[in-house]
Amino acid sequence: MSNPSLRLLLLDPQPESELAFVRSLVPETALAVSAPPEDDPQAVRALLGNAEAIVTREQPVTAQTLAAAPNLRLVQKYGGRPDRIDLDAAQAAGVAVAVMPLRGCIAVAELTLTLILALSKQLIDAHRATVEGAYRELGLQPARSSQRVHAFQWMKLPNLQEIRGKRLGVVGFGEIGTEVAKRANAFGMEVVYYKREPLPAWLDAQLNVQPLPFDELLRTSDFVTLHVPHGPATDKLIGARELGLMQPSAYLVNTCRGPVVDEAALVAALQAGAIAGAGLDVFEFEPLQWDSPLTQLSNVILTPHIGGGTGGAREKQMQDVLDNILRFSRGEEPLHRLV
């Protein structure tokens, strides 16, 4: 006789189409998936009373939430950060808590660090100088190299730097910003961030990050990376004023959405040397026009909106979350368990 399906509640209100999408990823015999159709507290309370596992994206899981769910065994976060989940209350209630880093966010974070590293090493100029044989302009001749004899930095490229010890300012600190911070910390960078509602101090300490006011972040960061959604509040968030606050030695990286940056102001700042350079994966118009002024600059690295990686993140991410719940339902230890 097969085991009954685990009763799973998607705590964030979902349209019927999203609920159908989630149900399509897992057999009904394994998970019985439900969700409140709208932000209706009474509907949520009724569903919580029956739930054995819940998935939350943005909705808080408090002591009151847990008290309203007497059958609850697992809280699964859709994302890699446990803010808005009362871990102490979950532990006291005997409820397991797990997070799930999101593949799409990790892919964007990887490209962000790729651009930061490429800018710090002048990678495009270094490649071009090497393949064009630009050493001839310096009167150099190739000679056999060995462990002790070699032509270190033979092109004498300026402005090379190590990113260890540099300050990375992250504008927008959601899931992608968090994944960027993890990787930047691994390289020994100092990570600061701007977020309208800063994280709890305990989570800042856990992630080794520090919140700063927006203008202070711009003034003091060696690299500024953007990770905000595009909308009326963030359209041209980075314009002439903001670029003017940045250090002349600083770099701007944008892997979120093109219109977040005023491209005309950015081109002017790059041409004037007001900032050192930029790494851009997104643009106001995509594909980037072949004759865009950005393509004529030597202090930029441009990529054709590849930050999402191999694609299919929506399905892959939800499948990861559901697989972790199924793992728990089989009596196995869930991945990324916190409690």
Structure description:
- By secondary structure, this protein is α/β, with parallel strands linked by helices.
- The protein has two domains: 6-99 and 313-329, NAD(P)-binding Rossmann-like Domain (Rossmann fold, 3-Layer(aba) Sandwich); 105-132 and 159-302, Rossmann fold.
- The chain is 34% helix and 14% strand.
- The protein contains twelve helices and twelve strands.
- The protein has helices spanning 16-24, 41-48, 63-67, 87-93, 103-120, 123-131, 175-186, 201-207, 214-220, 240-245, 263-272, 313-329; strands at 6-10, 31-34, 53-56, 74-77, 96-98, 167-171, 190-194, 209-211, 223-226, 251-254, 277-280, 300-302.
- The protein has a seven-stranded parallel β-sheet with strand order 8-7-6-9-10-11-12, sandwiched between helices.
- Strand 9, helix 10 (240-245) and strand 10 form a beta-alpha-beta unit.
- Helix 5 crosses helix 7 (175-186).
- The mean pLDDT is 96.
What are the secondary-structure elements, in order, as H or E?
EHEHEHEHEHHEHEHEHEHEHEEH
CATH topology-level name of the largest domain: Rossmann fold
Which residue ranges are poorly predicted, with pLDDT under 50 across at least 5 consecutive positions? none
Q: What is the tally of helical segments?
A: 12
Estimated radius of gyration? 24 Å
What is the averaged pLDDT score? 96
Q: Can I get a quick summary?
A:
The chain is of the alpha/beta class.
